[in-house]
Amino acid sequence: MPLLEIKNLSKNYEDKPILENITLSIEKGTIMGIIGPTGCGKTTLLRIIDLLEHPSSGKILFDGLDTSKSKKDRMEIRRRIGMVFQNPVVFNGTVFDNIHYGLNIRGQDKKSSRHKILELLKSLGLEGYEDQDASTLSGGETQRISLARALITQPDILLLDEPTANLDPVSTEKIEAIIEDLHQKKQTTMIIATHNLMQGQRLSDEIAILNKKIHQIGKPEEIFRTPKNKFVADFVGMENVIRGKAKKADHDLTLINLGGIVIYSSTPLEGGVYASIRPEDITVSNMKVRTSALNEFKGTVREIKDIGTLINLKVDLGEIFTVYMTKKSFLDLKITIGSQVWLQFKASAVHVFK
Amino acid sequence: MNEIVNGFFQAINLIVTLNPEVMEITLRTLEISLSSTFLGTLIAVPLGGLIYFRNFKGKRSVMNLIQTLYSLPTVLVGLLVFLLLSYQGPLGGLNLLFTPGGMIIGQTILILPIIIGFTITALKGVKGEIKDLSMSLGASEFQTIYTIMREAKYALLGAVILGFGRAISEVGVALMIGGNIRGFTRVITTTMSLETSKGNIELSIALGIILLTIALIINLLLNQIQEK
Question: Domain-by-domain residue ranges, chain B?
Answer without folding.
Answer: 10-52+69-208
